[in-house]
Amino acid sequence: MDLPHEVARRRTFAIISHPDAGKTTLTEKLLLYGGSVHIAGAVKSRKAARHALSDFMAMEREKGISISTSVLQFEHEGLRMNLLDTPGHADFSEDTYRTLAAVDSAIMLIDVAKGVEPRTLKLFEVCRLRKLPVITFVNKMDRSGLEPLELMDQVGNTLGIRTVALNWPIWHAHEFVGVYDRLREKAVLWTRLDGTSIVPEQMYDLDDPALEARVGTQELETLREELEMLDIAGDPWSLDAFLSGDVTPFFFGSAMINFGVSLLLEALGSLAPPPSSRPTVEGSRHPSDEDFSGFIFKIQANMDARHRDRIAFMRVVSGQFERGMDVKRAAGERAIRLSKPHTFLASERSIVDIAVPGDIVGLYDPGDLRLGDTLYQGERVEFQGIPRFAPEFFARVRLKDPTKRKHLQRGLEQLSQEGTVQLFYRPGEGKADPFVGAVGLLQFEVLKSRLASEYNTQAELDAAPFSLARWVVGDEKAMAWLGARPDFTLVEDRTGHPVVLAASPWALTYATREVKGLELFEISPL
Ligand code: G4P
Question: Is CATH 3.40.50.300 the right assignment for the domain spanning 278-376?
Answer without folding.
Answer: yes
